[in-house]
Amino acid sequence: MAKPPPTVQTLLQENRELRARLEESDSTLRAIREGEVDALVVEGAAGPRLFTLQGLDAEQTRFRSEMLARVSDAVIAVDAEERITFLNAAAERLYGVRSDDVLGCTFTEMFTPHWPSAEAEITMRTALRERGEWRGELIHRAPDGRERHVEMSTTALRDPDGAGTGYIKVIRDILDRKKLEEEKADALRLLDTLLTRAPVGFAYFDRDLRYVRINERLAEMDGISVAAHLGRTVGEIVPTLEGAVREATERILATGEAVLHHEFSGETALAPGATRYWNESWYPVHGEGGEIVGFGAVVEEITERKQAEEAQRQSRERILLASEAAQMGFWSWRPDEDSVLWETQYPYRILGVPLGSPPVTAARFVAEFIHPDDRPIFEQAVAQTLEAREPFAFVGRIRRSDGEARWLEFTSKRDAAENGRATRIIGTVQDITDRLLKAEALRASEEQFRALAGQLEHVVKERTEELVQSQDRLRALATMLNLTEQRERKRLADELHDYLTQLLVLGLLNLGQMKRIGLPPKAVEKVQETEGVLTQALTYSRTLMAELSPPVLQEHGLPAGLKWLGEQMQRQGLMVLVEIGNASTGSLSNDCAVLLFQSVRELLMNALKHAGCQHVYIRLQEGERRLCIEVRDDGVGFDLAAAGCSTTAMSSKFGLFSIRERMTALGGWFDLQSAPGEGTTATLMLPVDSTSEPSSELQVLSAELSDQGRNSGPRTPNSNLHQQDAKICVLLVDDHAMVRQGLRTVLDAYPDVEVVGEACNGEEAVAFVERVQPSIVVMDINMPKMNGIDATAAIVSRYPGTVVIGLSVQAGGANEEAMKHAGAALLLTKEAAVDELYRVIRETLGAKLKGTALGAGLDK
């Protein structure tokens, strides 16, 4: 087991034992002190040890001992093994030990060093090995446990052969110096904090006025960073201040005294072209010899204060000018002194007192200038103000020095003491004589004006009523013109339908009959040419009728009319999407439907011509007892304000005005929203009844049919359906006799068909079916009293064995859908009846017979 290293206590014990042995050899010790021997062998606990005195005589030893004892630095000598061989009195005082207690102990054991870092210790040993000396700072812990912050200089000792024999360590206590350095560092940190956070600017300059140090606040004032200031002169940073700063610093150099509260003005990089103001104090900075080595500056920017002072001065000037312009004076009165201070010259002009006259005191003002009749009122107002009850206010007369009477108005505000008494009263005075005269004249003028205004109001009311009535009449007239136009269109369309188209259809029917008779080839060719001409004329007639008055609008209502309108616009290249919501238009009058339809058509035509759009969306919706039609396009849009003075917008001014007036006449309104590049949305709103009632004619017919059903009981299918060899009984229904005659001629050519009767309207058709019950009813759509759609619904619901085949000039779209919904087998155009009617009758009847037989088989 390794022997533990000796402790400090062990070493001290050994030294005490060694000292006891040395004291026993007085003669030997005496010889050592007197220098009679050069070496000494001492037996100790660790064995014999040799102490060499290097031949030094006693005198030299004493000299060195006394010299080392007198120096203020601690000196410690150690041998090559770092055992302490000597320490002076300063070292004993520094570490609180006695020389006899530590001799022979190692230095690191007695004075444990605390290195700042491991690298510092390595640096020390390297320096001693390479250069033989080292200087540095470290902390020693003495045997008493206290720590010492020291500065140590170590020098290596070598023998004549260059071998190391030990070290001399010179140690200085730097604890006080370290405390001073820390205090200085704390002071500098405190100064930095003050400089950084101070609301004023600080700077330190050398004698050449170069920035040595500056805080952030002053850098902000200059508009340049702190780093940009350092090393540069005041003239380089703020050229406009260089002259004033040099004047202040030269005064300091001449007198040695600070220059306090010196105002500067100039421009900075932060606000070039704008004058700024500073309040600066300059102080001399002295060196160690008392000479001035630089300057310190404390800078406070007062630009805002200067601007406020200037603004206040200008404000006062403006107030004085305004008071002169407004003929208003300012006064201040101290009751204790009876002195009145008139701020402007205006009060003197009011009183007629020449400038330079003795001051007008309060007593003089009351006695000489206040009108005797108004003096009690004035004195009472002053007394109330002095008693702190209310501010001073007075309107009364004065008598000028020239005897003229004038009216003055006084207003005031008082300053009160702690007891409530007024110490000063300040206020305004104004001559209101002219104002009162003008007010009196104005009052008389107002009374006259009020009388005239009453007469004018009556006239305006009459004219307004006439204008409103005229506007209502014009709106009604415009609406009537629109309705008249639509009615005339419908009349022309009806004329075309009732006469021209029927003649064309009859002509086609007759030509079809002629082809069956058998004609020469030349005649057949001419007949075919004539059929083509008649067909083209019939097509043109249909188009013309649709443009004049769409039958779908008249027969199927507004929703079907809007869908038809969308299909027509698509043929012109405009894609129109029509959406029918939960709108119920049954209660909508025919005139309203026509006007709404016409308005939507005008909007679509405008979109086609002007909007440059690809799609238009039409939405019909009903809600909150209002019918709403929205027409929205994705076109170029337009500026509504510019459209008011332009005729090249999406819709002409007259067109929009016509639609708006039309809707107003109907009790609705019209809204238009558009912007360039965002399309256009037009909204038509019309109040309607939320419930839809059927027409009175249809109600009567439905009631009659219901009564007949209850009285006669269920009907059996037509017996003709079971007699395949019997003739087919056909009823012809059309409001044109010529068409019925043509159809009869066509069907009479077939031996298995018998025309059992004719009817000219829906009511006659229903009654005839009740009596005869034909197998086939050929039903026209457009007829008076009851149209073909309603008649078909009544016949099919009442007599399911009867087959209805519809005929119409317009045989597509809504007409076809309505007839099929009513129960018709199909819908043919009238010109197709020549070639198709018989075939359709046979096919439809055959399909009906098969369905009936199948139903009978299922019953069995």
Describe this protein with a few key phrases.
alpha+beta; 5-stranded antiparallel β-sheet; 23% strand; 6-stranded antiparallel β-sheet; single chain; disordered C terminus; 28 strands; 860 residues; elongated
Short description:
By secondary structure, the chain is of the alpha+beta class. It contains 28 helices and 28 strands.
Architecture overview:
The chain has 860 residues and is an alpha+beta fold. It is 50% helix and 23% strand. It is built from 28 helices and 28 strands. Strands 4-3-8-7-6-5 form a six-stranded antiparallel sheet. A hairpin with a 5-residue loop joins strand 6 and strand 7 (147-158). Residues 54-61, 645-651, 690-725 and 853-860 have low confidence and may be disordered.
